[in-house]
Structures are given as structure tokens and as C-alpha cells.
């Protein structure tokens, strides 16, 4: 029961009493409101002023803009919030005290992660009135909104596990933050770069080996699976299903490779499952790093081996 986790309760009280929390909520929702109202103005009022017809399908683009800004803020905020969760305790020299309590390393990790996710869920729910702008005209259903909120939760767990892992692995919050942002950058842009680079090399090979008159498009096939760990592609896949505005994902499929039909149709499901599995592995690894008995077990095992060798030599 996560609500009974003492670490979670302590972090929740600290967050609720902090002025920074309210400043972040105000800043995020203010930024989303500006983007939403500006997009609404460009789509309707501005089009009428210049004499163009108003297309009510543009409301889907407004939804894409608002959710895109919120998702981008999620990518920026979560690594920063979670990277100092454990390393901050090390710097304050309170981690050893925390480990002497009845809490297991896994409970500490879960408490820190859920506290960070709670902050992101608070931001997501507080932004619902801004996203509800699209309901003034139509085109987006409550089911679409619920799917987006679930994506926010899954991505927060995924990115949060990366920050927690480096926070447990490294001693300084600065180092953990740099490592977390570097990993997120690698997942978001590095996978795109890898897919583009592999396609570029294959295309060069085909252009030199094939007919120069007939253009042949390279197909990198299963290399496209690298994008399953990319949270941006997961977001584009949900847009493709909801508003048909995930053109980037569709162009990737058409230009870079052909995947099995089941993977094309259920990309969101496969990518979500893989990212959750990665998050679980990282959280278990972080708990193992924090385990104070790990070093003692290794020393005891080493002593037993030395004792057996001495007895065998005698």
C-alpha cells in the first residue's frame, strides 16, 4: 500500500508545503494556456480576419499542440525531479539513517518514485481545464483524454526509473542529473539518429550497387524496433490513433522500413510494455545498489571461500 509508505508520506508533505510546487504548477499551466489560446486564435479568429474558411478539424491540431507541450515538459521535469531523490539523501548524509530503519531498499525506492510521479500527476490533472479547450468544439473524446493521462503516467514511471537509478548509482545530484538527461536524450534523439544513420548507409549501398535510373528505397526492417524504447515515438503513436496527426510516425514506417502488421497496429501496446519492463529492471537495480547488506554478504562469502581453501591446504 503505497499511501502508507513513510518515505512517500514524508516527500508528499514536503512537496505540498513547498512554494516551488505552486510556482511550477502555475508556470506549467500558464505556458499551456498561452500555447492553447494562441493556437485557438490562429485556427479560428485569425483565419476569419484574413478571409479564409475556418476548418473545424483544426481543433485536432490544437489538441496535438497542447498535449505535445505538456509531454515535452514531462521529458524536462521528471529526470530533474528524480535524479536527486537518493543522491540528495547522500549529500545530506541522511541515507545511512534511512537505511537503519525497518524500511527495505525497495520501499525507499518506491516511495521516492511514487512521490515524484504524484507531482507529475498533479500537473497533469491541473492542466485538464486547458486541454478541455478542445471539448468546446469537439473531435476529442473522454476516452482519448484518459489514454493520454495513462501515457503520462507510464512515461513518468519510465523516465522516473532512469532518474532514480542514476541517483542511487552516483553520489552527487549534479552527476545523476547529467546522466539522467543524457540517457533520456539518447533514448529520444539517439534512437532516431541510429535509425536514420542505418537507413542512410543502406541507401548509399543500394545507390552504388543498384540501377542508377530506378530509385530504390532502403528498408532497414527490424532496426525500426529501436524506436520501441523512444517515449516520443510512443506519444506520436497515440496521436496517430486519436487525431491522425502523428505524421512523423507514419512517415518513418513508410520511408525507413516495413514492420509486421501486428506491430504497426499495436505499437503503443508493445512500446508501453517494453518501457515498463525496463523501468522495473532499473528500479530493482537501484534497490540492489542501496542494499546495505550486499557488501557484507560478499565479504562473508569471500571469507568462507578462504576458510575452505585453508582447510583444504591443511
UniProtKB/TrEMBL annotation:
Residues that span the membrane, as ranges: 21-42, 62-86, 120-142, 148-166, 178-198, 267-293
Pfam families documented for this protein: ABC2_membrane_2 (PF12679)
Superkingdom, natural source: Bacteria
GO cellular component term, pick one: plasma membrane
Keywords for the protein's UniProt record, in alphabetical order: Membrane, Transmembrane, Transmembrane helix
PANTHER family referenced in this protein's UniProt entry, alphabetically: ABC TRANSPORTER PERMEASE, HYPOTHETICAL MEMBRANE PROTEIN, CONSERVED
Protein name, entry field: ABC-2 family transporter protein
Organism: Anaerocolumna xylanovorans DSM 12503
